[in-house]
Amino acid sequence: MEGVNIIDLPGGKPEPLMSYLKALGIFRLVVEQADTSAKMLWHGGICRLQTTLNRDGLIDFFANRYSPTPIVGPWGARSGFYPGSSEKSAREALNQIVTGAETSPRLGDFRNAIEEIRDLLRTNGMTEKVSDDNKLKLMQLCRNKLSSDTMVNWLDAVFVITDDSRKFPPLLGTGGNEGSGSYVSMFAQLVGSLLVDRSDCAGVANALFDEFTSTLAGISVGHFSPGAIGGPNSSQGFEGGGGANPWDYLLAIEGTLMLAGAASRRLGSDTVGRASYPFCVEPVAVGYASESDQEAENGTRAELWLPLWWKQPVTFAELQYLFAEGRVQLGRRQARNTIEFALAINLLGVSRGVDAFVRYAFVMRNGLSYFAVPLGRVPVTLKPTANLLQDSKLTQWLSQLHVACRDTEKTPARYRTALRQIDQAIYEFSTGNESGTRGLNHVLRALGRAERTLSIGLRFCEKKTLRPLQQLSKDWLEQADDKSPEFRLAVALSGIEANGEVGPFRAYLESVEMKTGSFQWQKDQNKAAVWSNRPLAANLAAIFLRRQMEAFRAGQSVIPIRSPRPAALNDVIAFLYGDIDDDKLADLTWGLAAIDWPMVDSWSPRVEDVAVPFEFGIPRLLLLAKPWTIQPDPRRRKQPEGRRWTVAESDTMNSAHDPGVFAILDSGQPDSIVRCVDRAAHRLKTVGLFALGSRNRRLAGRSLAVMSPFRPDRLLAAMMFPLSQRDLVAVANAVLYPPESEDS
């Protein structure tokens, strides 16, 4: 057995697209025509072959023995099969190939294909260029009647026959034509020039090894290489204003056969036959660094994610299988767009052995011409947290939002912006190097902003049948937790439960109501939904006052602010001091409101030593989430110094709520905090609880000298955060005199 040679091909790189396709073409042709045992991988950013051929043997094979694939397209313009001046160049090229085959056996297959198609056209009376109405018929005839397997592979690469139509994969334009040019005509002309006339044998070494040659005659290459601007066959011969090596073009077209498409029928509610093409997805406008959003949305017809592998070489059969399968699974279905593809490769929904993908977008430039623009490489990595993003509740909602925003001309910009921010966050999570937790946190914020945007456009939601986002997995509470106070506070707020006629916290964010176990938009504007376009503190204060009003209207003795995940006291105090990112807290609160809260287990934060501001602690003791009572701790003799009070569950309460205390904070008066604290302290005094602030507990009802750094609206907003029983104990011991029996 001959020895295996390792041959690096600097001429075959993952970018631009023509270079990637050229590498595939080189590998395919070597295996099919020279060395069936050859293998390929990407090494150091270039194509590497493992083959029995040596360097000189590889050059000799392409220069002297390579047999070109019959690349023809009788259904398209400039095919060379019809009379007329526009067909002249291609017609002469086909005739040159037929004549050249008499002395060059390597052109035999091409000649046979040309003659077989000519016979097919004559037999079916197609002596003139076919009309658009008959193109499908001709494509079906070619697909069913032509005998060459290689020819059939080419047909599968250039078009796909569905139930009653044909689809054109983006790689080769519309059936081998791009604008007024023809890929098949250019290929035939190059076969005549390079293999019959042998005009540029030196170009082989340049194509394979990127070696300089002074005799290179550049040509235009269509969308395969944006650096060589010009249309395929945009002028006679090879003059198109481009600069590509003709051998590059020839071998790249050969490489397109690896991406043969197939008609597939996707089961489920969508049973319409749909064209499937290897690693091809609908574009989503993310990652387009230099383009406007409008151009990215309207000027991109498809994306192609092409696999890279460098850990292990592959055989030709393995590579054929990879491209034949050509799909990336997101759960039980195939990824359909950019976002789903990027997400799926984090869940190993790709074939084993693929290490990364290079992403290409077919973007419109120069009028009506499309170019394959490389948008970077995305590694295949396992991120278990990505499972949250394939939750059916989320994917269905996102899919509906994508459909709703599809008409970019008629859809208001605010909805498209909200969707784009979600897509961008998911894409960055899927492709970035940052932790999964941080990425999910950003996704959650984007979801929250989108829900907030939709909540003020109920007419749009009704027209597009968009429901509120809801019933997300409770796993978000752990996996999106970036350990920030904003996240913890948002969890506490969004989990606030309903109590009788007072709804859950979400009902005060947006106009929703619970029907048949799920949230629905409330057509008659919900007056409880008081969140508006104002600062976070003002919104939380408004929600607090609204819940207070509804609770007392319903005859409830306390404001229901119970949550299965109460806030930590030190986080609430950080909020009071303004040491919180309010925008982040607002976004997360809206996002976390979509959690399936009835499924969330109760949990209380760890109590930490913290200085409790007096003006917060005194009124806060009037807000108890349960019928609790503040009473002396029966174990106080054994407790650490300062622990004299406890909060215990009881049938009676000794700190009944006084709505007037909090209405004062909403008055806007400069002394509102002082009056609020005085009134709260007086209320506590009536049940035997005395606030610190005077020499004698008996005089504690006097006005308290409070110098507060807080804004009244922020102090009122802080009352909205649920606290655990243990934190309420800490508040009581921080702002109350000890029980009377211990007074000195």
Written description of the protein model:
This protein is of the alpha+beta class. Among the domains are: 5-65; 278-382, no CATH class; 447-599, no CATH class; 614-742, no CATH class. The radius of gyration is 36 Å and the shape is elongated. Helix 22 packs across helix 24 (672-685).
Query: How many β-strand stretches?
Result: 20
Provide the structure class: alpha+beta
Strand content bin: 5-15%
Largest sheet: 4 strands, antiparallel
Model regions low in confidence, pLDDT < 50 over at least 5 residues = 229-241, 263-274
Relative helix content: 25-40%
InterPro entries: Cas_Csx17 (IPR026483)
Organism: Singulisphaera sp. Ch08
Protein name: Type I-U CRISPR-associated protein Csx17
Please give the structural blueprint.
Blueprint: E1 5-9, H1 17-33, E2 39-43, E3 46-51, H2 55-65, H3 88-100, H4 108-123, H5 132-145, H6 149-158, E4 160-161, E5 166-167, E6 177-178, E7 181-182, H7 183-196, H8 203-209, H9 246-255, E8 262-264, E9 274-276, E10 280-281, H10 293-298, E11 300-308, E12 314-315, H11 316-325, E13 329-330, E14 333-334, H12 338-344, E15 356-365, E16 369-379, H13 392-404, H14 413-431, H15 436-455, H16 458-463, H17 476-479, H18 485-494, E17 512-515, E18 518-521, H19 536-553, H20 569-576, H21 582-592, H22 614-620, E19 628-632, E20 645-649, H23 659-665, H24 672-685, H25 712-718, H26 725-735
Antiparallel strand pairs: 1-3, 2-3, 2-12, 4-5, 6-7, 8-9, 10-11, 11-15, 13-14, 15-16, 17-18, 19-20
Helix pairs in contact: 1-9, 3-4, 3-7, 7-9, 12-14, 14-15, 15-21, 18-21, 19-25, 22-24, 22-26, 23-24
